Amino acid sequence: MFENISFANPQFFWLFLLLPVAMLWYFFKRKEQTASLKMSSIKGFQKGSILPKLKPALFAMRLLALAAIIVAMARPQTEDISTRTKTTKGIDIVMAIDVSSSMLAKDLKPYRLAALKKVAADFINERPNDRIGLVAYAGESYTKTPITSDKSIVLRALDEITYGQLNDGTAIGMGLATSVNRLKESKALSKVIILLTDGVNNSGFIEPQTAADLAVEFGIKTYTIGLGTNGNAMSPIAYNADGSFRYGMREVEIDESLLKSIAETTGGQYFRATDNKKLEAIYEEINKLEKTEVEEFKYYKYEEKFRPWVYLAGVLLLLEWLARNTLYRSFI
């Protein structure tokens, strides 16, 4: 009956405490309000009217009317809420992903690149109001997808990123410069690069620091992530005769000083991910640091439902008045 109903003045429900008091008063006082007549015999009245037994119904109708008035005073109403959102600060993000052979190392499960793609997909899904692009780099770099608000395109492009699409190597400067190039014409209020690598800059013709300076010039913040465990990791070390990789233990080398320098120069932060959980935590932290400002407007439409209760109270009081002044007018 009261499903999806709210009350504007619920404090009036405290008045229901008066109803038990009224019932007790009626129970103790009703005999005093009824005239009595002592007779030696009632044989002549054995076929009397049923009205005396129904007289308490008058008081019951008055109580029900009072209860209906209390509900009406509480103002039952239905509420219809509509919302409209307005993005006031959009963020353009480019994710620069290292796809060199070392990203096949198995210190993250099942291997580094697969672990990264899973976490990056979750990150993309949690940025519905931002535009995102992808840059892949190894010995060289290229734009996998330009910045776009179509997350299905970005996710499909992310899924297609594999090892072997580029010459092997780690051109951190090239990856960062290509990312800057994708963002330099952006009109967004905030521009961010998330650059991930698991190695040392050893390829490319653009120095990482030069690319970092370009990012500063165009107002682009860069978060850097070093991916790989501490110590040694099961990594590709040679090719087998069938073209597959031969794995062996290899020392994990990450140029952390360079990554820290890039982050500090551009106003970002450096993170180190040594396992799957830490990688997930890093992307969650970046997601919290880079928030899109969304302004939400809520419109409330109320429909009052107190009128039926007023009508019910009126009908009950009218019936009680009619019965008292007709059927029970001369009742003793």
TrEMBL record:
PANTHER family: LEUCINE ZIPPER PROTEIN 4 (PTHR22550:SF5), SPORE GERMINATION PROTEIN (PTHR22550). The lineage of its organism: Bacteria, Pseudomonadati, Bacteroidota, Flavobacteriia, Flavobacteriales. It comes from the Bacteria. The keyword GTP-binding does not apply. Keywords: Cell membrane, Membrane, Transmembrane, Transmembrane helix. This is Ca-activated chloride channel family protein. The chain crosses the membrane at residues 12-28, 57-74. It comes from Arenibacter troitsensis. Residues 92-286 form the VWFA domain. It holds the Pfam family BatA. CDD domains: vWA_BatA_type.
